[in-house]
Amino acid sequence: MKKFLLGGTALFLLGAGAGIAADLPVRAPIYYKAPAPVFDWTGFYVGAFAGVGVQQSRGQDPTGAVAGKLDYTGSGVVGGVALGYNWQFGPNWVAGVEGDIAYFGLSHQVTDWNDFFQYNSKTSGLATARARLGYSGGGPTLSYVTGGGAWVRVEDSLSNLAGTTVVTSSKTRGGYAVGTGVETMLGGNWTAKAESLYVNVGKGDATLLPASVYNVQVDHRYNVMKFGVNYLFGGKPQPALQPHNWNGFYAGIVGGSGVADARGTQPGVVGEIGNNGDGFSIGGQLGYNWHFAPSLVAGVEGDFSWLGINRSSPQYNDFSATRNATLGVKTSWLATLRGRLGYSTGPALLYVTGGGAWVNVTDSWQGANGAVFGPLVTSTKTLSGYTAGGGIETLFTLFAGNWTSRSEYLYVDAGNGAVLASTANMQINHKFHLFRSGLTYHFGG
User: Does residue 78 contact residue 105 with C-beta atoms inside 8 Å?
Assistant: First the structure.
């Protein structure tokens, strides 16, 4: 009887509990979002790179006996290997060290205008040892700044016009390098990067041409744009790269630095005057991408930017109490309309670009052959030409949504300006090198 009562009571309580539970509201299931995968940048890496270097060196008489300056212009190729180590912390931040060594092929032999000598500053090697600090947001792209020591193998030379007397100074010059870059994972421990550097290795030795007044000491400065690939050691399993749809319109801002490679010549006369002024640029861009294959993207892009290059300097050995030769180049704006063709890794777009370019330029000149003065003459024109270059565009993890960032190099050839008729005529040929970064918003979600 006792067992029967206990069993009955238990059944009653279970039934009552089930009834009460049936009357309670049903709670919705709770879903937890999986954490975003974190890409691991830590470890040693090796790589190779190639790109372009731009000469921005300037020479003058170290004694002051001869007034004026020489602007060394010209560009060439750079290519080499790199070795480095990354340490990821945070997990959004990456610090590291990197060393590289490269062939650095800059050379432009110039016959100086209205003088009896030739000059050149020729480079053959470049090495750097730098620190890097970047932001990855735990993702597959890394935007970074870098800086450290730099060494350039450089040969400065002066010679007479016949080339029978040559004075050279060939040394490895030490200085510093600073810059920015972007690096993106390609899968399988491979990465691709685009990096721009400003290199300054200071003054060289004075070169004095015998039996003449020509004595020149060069201050060596360079701009470098490198595109490369790295291999990260360690065999670490990385999250899969997610596909990204690059289709649609976009708009953004773009800016950076520009370097002139301008050369003035007197029609019918041997010799030239260089002008390698530099300045900042900032502007806007608008474009459209067509993602027409799993990994291929084509598009069209236009941009309009303020370009603040402004350099006017007295010509070496042609500026004194009896002569006033001065060449100037000033830019106010730059516009391009270009096609783009790129390879998509998912979170990054590696692209080449080319098309038309327009530059608003004010040229100025005063001077004459011989020891006489010439009046100042100016000409402002919008010159047209072409542009070509490349870059890397990546998802910008610091902002949520449809933002991307880019690192880009453009070469611009805007051709000849008007003939400036001072006492001696002068015409300037205009080339420019642009080292730019951008921030872009892609419409359409």
Answer: yes
Q: Would the pTM count as exceeding 0.70?
A: yes
As a whole number of angstroms, the distance between CA 201 and CA 221 comes to 7
d(CA 218, CA 108): 14
The tokens for 323 are 């002569």
The residues, ordered by sequence, that sit 6+ positions from 247 with a Cβ below 8 Å of its Cβ are 289, 290, 291, 444
Sign of dihedral through CA atoms 404, 407, 409, 414?
A: positive
What's the CA dihedral at 5, 6, 10, 15 to 10 degrees? Answer: 0
Structure tokens that stand for 268 in this block: 């019918």
Helix (H) or strand (E) holding 20: helix 2-23
The CA-atom distances, in angstroms, between 255 and each of 288, 335, 370, 392 are 19, 12, 43, 15
Separation CA 55–CA 73 (nearest Å): 5
For the segment 32-41, what is each residue's pLDDT rounded down to a tens digit? 444 556 899 9
Q: CA dist 113 to 161, 262, 368, Å?
A: 12, 14, 11
Token pair for 202? 């200071």
Question: CA–CA separation, 33 vs 255, rounded Å?
Answer: 38
List, for residues 423-439, the tens digit of each pLDDT value: 999 999 999 999 999 99
Fold of 243-445: Porin (2.40.160)
Q: Which residues belong to CATH 2.40.160.20 in the chain? A: 40-241, 243-445
Fold of 40-241: Porin (2.40.160)
